[in-house]
Amino acid sequence: MAANPENPATAAPRAPGRKASRHRGEGQWAAGHFTPLNGNEQFKKDDDGLNVRTRIETIYSKRGFHSIDPNDLRGRMRWWGLYTQRKPGIDGGKTAILEPEELDDEYFMLRVRIDGGRLTTAQLRVIGEISQEFARGTADITDRQNIQYHWIRIEDMPEIWRRLEGVGLSTTEACGDTPRVILGSPVAGIAEDEIIDGTPAVEEINRRFIGNPAFSNLPRKFKTAISGSPLLDVAHEINDVAFVGVVHPDLGPGFDLWVGGGLSTNPKIGQRLGAWVPLEDVPDVFEGVISIFRDYGYRRLRNRARLKFLLADWGTAKFRQVLQDEYLLRKLADGPAPEQPVQRWRDHIGVHRQRDGRFYVGFAPRVGRVDGTVLTKIADLAAAHGSGRLSTTVEQKMIVLDVAEDQVDSLVEGLEALDLTARPSSFRRGTMACTGIEFCKLAIVETKARGASLIDELERRIPDFDEPITININGCPNACARIQVADIGLKGQLVLDADGNQVEGYQVHLGGALGLQAGFGRKVRGLKVTAAELPDYVERVLKRFQAERADGERFAT
Ligand code: SF4
Fold first, then answer.
1. Which residue's alpha carbon is nearest to atom 3 within ligand 1?
2. Residue 546 and residue 544: Cα distance in Å, rounded?
3. Nearest to residue 37, comparing CAs of 410, 431, 305, 432?
4. What CA–CA distance (Å, rounded) separates 267 from 269?
5. DSSP labels for 312-355?
6. Are 119 and 391 in contact (CB under 8 A)?
7. Where would I find the Nitrite/sulphite reductase 4Fe-4S domain in this sequence (predicted)?
């Protein structure tokens, strides 16, 4: 059913006779509350974010940056993957002080959604070409399998969309209060150990729900993950809805349903509803969960709007009951939990045999940073070795798929020549960084360059370190690089150095993890390191761990 807050009579599915709940004050549509309670809800009510595309193509791209309506510029543009980027040269101390218009550059970040992380070589080549022609060479691999450009001019957007859409790529709802990119196992359909291939569900959800006005005004962003890999390779624990491959003892392979995960404000690990979902039902169950979020989700405070807050109030039993009784109109089968993965790395780095006898090769740039030239070379290299497909991972890495055995060594060598190794150190493999102060308006400190230099320093200082380790670096208190679930999480902030000067640094969180023992790292009270001290600090922590660990002990224990 299409939800239109302009027309409360048709806005949201409501059970007959349902009374306004005590949460009417949270702006829930299902409680009959359609009066916007904040500026974001107002601009979404005034006009669907999806409609900004027409204005970009017919007005803004022709008249330039200064013709853009402020509610489009800092609001609806996101529905098409566009954020203004940070003006260069503004230090982190001013982030919280300046007005948005003082921080805004006249250029944009543009996010290309890559559902399931799956790309053809032709698509990657186009991504690389756009980067070189329109984005000053920038192109980062994000930890949600997307590609992100910077330096985009509004004037170039029609041509960029023409090229992306010409090869089946899109920026639709890559940002905004929408169903964001659908994470999928980067080795879906090819891995030897796969429980079930979720690709048909990823594609069907994309076809039915992305760019659909019935779901383009959600209380907040809505994140989805689907994977049938026993490695649990899509960070399902921190998505609003996740479908995780399991084998039901009677019904066979299917998915275990998780809801309500999310980091940032009040981080929560998603919770199991105890329900088993067959592959063909995944899109309908997705529709039920996202509809609950649209209809019952809180719309008063943006930092209390994610699905996790509704789940915390309802509990899993009520959530499942509402899903079944009001949306699916049938019961879901009970099902088992996923099993503990046999290894800690979940990124598919290295050379692995596929179930069809060919191989896939996962490789690691540093902190997801590549550029347009490199992406084009990767596409050429993959094609020259007989591959037509690649994947992006949720660890800011990439994989070349479908490589014949006699091509593997040459491909690995070619990647090495591009400084993209399939045999990375634990540091290069396990370090991620968000965008940071280079482009992000919310940032307080540098992240990408610092992450890359930290990797190089640690490789030099502890060359024999061979444990799985995750080091995640954020440029501010948000959670784009998942600091809460890293072994070593570094939250960017200004700190005092030994001389009492305010300098860039990090609050340290230790011992977080994803997986079946997922949990948040402990904020080490009072432990803040300056950026200059960071390599020394991490080296000390890791060397102590090396010296004191018991057999098989992992960092987080
Ligand atoms: Fe920007 Fe903060 Fe997100 Fe990093 S964590 S990309 S600095 S909002």
1. 480
2. 5
3. 305
4. 7
5. HHH-HHHHHHHIIIIIISSPPEE-PPPPPPSSS--S--EEEEBT
6. yes
7. 175-328, 428-557
Q: How far apart are CA 387 and CA 379, in angstroms?
A: 9
478 Cβ below 6 A of ligand 1:
yes
Between the CA of residue 157 and those of 241, 303, 316, 409, what are the distances in Å? 31, 31, 43, 40
Residue 216 pLDDT: 98
Mean pLDDT lowest among 171-180, 280-289, 369-378, 512-521? 512-521
Mutate to test the pocket of ligand 1, among 435, 490, 507 (most ligand atoms within 8 A of CB): 435
Top mutation candidate among 150, 369, 442, 491 for ligand 1, by most atoms within 8 Å of CB? 442
Task: Identify whether the C-beta of residue 107 lies closer than 8 Å to the C-beta of residue 461.
Answer: no
CA 74: distance to chain centroid? Answer: 20
pLDDT in tens, 298-334: 999 999 999 999 999 999 999 999 999 999 999 999 9
Distance, C-alpha 371 to centroid of its chain? 19
Q: Is 480 in the pocket of ligand 1 (CB under 6 A)?
A: yes
Residue 7: CB atoms within 10 Å: 10
Residue 167, helix vs strand vs coil: coil
